[in-house]
Inverse folding.
């Protein structure tokens, strides 16, 4: 499954295994989507209370696995796999704008979970379909992952924040050759992070918004209850006020700290402390998410009926879940802040297309 040839090409067997996994996950995604429309309550549980809570830890340990099996990516990249794409490339400014739009989409969509999506399976289904359509249409025109998977996707900024020091590197099960569609490639660049690409103002704003703003945004999101229906403008306002207020506070703290670091005289110290600052905020973000989400999954959340997978409150004391969350916080700070960088990328870069053409030409009979 993980084997590659020495020249960088992947063995047919390894690709076959990944194709099988992609198909299985795609079918699971299709079933969840079906439930969202025809059995909404079950669909909401499968999507919001099982799939989404697992995602952050997967993005921390092995984002390349998710990049390979994401059902949206499997669908969106079909035009490229079937050679139906025009394979157009984007410039740095266009990619930067897409990255910024992806961050904005994340910060706009997530608060609406409280007002719409958490308790409306059909609305969630339409949200997913709209993303599939946007990504697939883009796939008919643009090269590989440039528009959706490494651009507009609201999850991609979180991938770059959480995936800076991964455990697992896997083969790239989509790109059969590297076309340099995004530079630096998030899949193939060791220790990629949200702040790795600062080529334009859009890149820079996207990076500091996700790095500095996400911890406070997550904290603020968990201070708002779900509304089963929106009865007033105040409720809509409330679902945005708390997350955006938290975002603003952590964003300001991040930027003040970053300026202090940049005023240091030693360039080496600036690099070290800047990396540590990014790592600390990544640890804060994912720790904050699980600090609130794990108790709420089992009925111990601030809002007793929100986001519950199994209500264990009548049967168990809350201390085991408090212990789990504390241990996870310790783990995430070790993982991001104290663990030595291992120089791993999310996936193994396939051969560059130009090199692949030269190799094939060299092997042609005279």
């Amino acid at each position: 499954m993980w084997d590659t040839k020495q020249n960088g090409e992947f063995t047919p067997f390894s690709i076959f295994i990944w194709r099988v996994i992609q198909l299985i996950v795609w079918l699971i995604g299709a079933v969840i989507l079906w439930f969202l429309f025809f059995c909404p309550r079950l669909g909401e549980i499968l999507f919001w209370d099982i799939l989404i809570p697992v995602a952050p830890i997967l993005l921390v340990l092995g984002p390349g696995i998710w990049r390979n099996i994401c059902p949206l990516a499997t669908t969106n990249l079909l035009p490229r796999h079937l050679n139906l794409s025009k394979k157009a490339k984007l410039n740095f400014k266009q990619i930067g704008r897409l990255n910024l739009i992806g961050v904005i989409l994340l910060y706009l969509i997530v608060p609406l979970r409280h007002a719409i999506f958490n308790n409306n399976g059909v609305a969630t289904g339409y949200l997913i379909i709209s993303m599939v359509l946007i990504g697939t249409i883009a796939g008919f025109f643009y090269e590989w992952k440039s528009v959706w998977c490494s651009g507009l996707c609201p999850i991609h900024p979180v991938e770059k924040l959480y995936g800076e020091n991964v455990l697992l590197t896997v083969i790239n099960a989509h790109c059969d050759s590297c076309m340099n569609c995004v530079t630096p490639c998030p899949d193939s660049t060791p220790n990629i992070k949200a702040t790795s690409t600062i080529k334009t103002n859009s890149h820079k704003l996207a990076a500091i918004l996700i790095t500095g703003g996400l911890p406070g945004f997550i904290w603020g999101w968990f201070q708002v209850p779900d509304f089963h229906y929106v009865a007033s403008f105040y409720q809509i306002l409330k679902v945005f006020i708390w997350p955006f207020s938290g975002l603003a506070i952590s964003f300001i703290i991040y930027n003040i700290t970053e300026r202090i670091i940049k005023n240091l005289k030693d360039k080496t110290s600036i690099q070290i402390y800047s990396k540590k600052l990014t790592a600390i905020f990544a640890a804060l973000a994912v720790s904050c998410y699980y600090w609130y989400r794990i108790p709420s999954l089992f009925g111990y959340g601030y809002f007793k009926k929100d986001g519950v997978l199994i209500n264990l409150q009548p049967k168990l004391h809350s201390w085991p879940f408090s212990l789990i969350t504390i241990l996870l916080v310790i783990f995430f700070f070790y993982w991001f802040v104290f663990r030595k960088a291992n120089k791993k990328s999310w996936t193994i870069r396939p051969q560059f297309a130009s090199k692949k053409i030269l190799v094939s030409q060299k092997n042609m009979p005279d």
User: Anything to note?
Assistant: The first strand starts at residue 170 and ends at 171. The beta strands are 170-171, 347-348. Confidence is low (pLDDT under 50) at residues 1-8, 357-366. The longest helix spans residues 267-297.
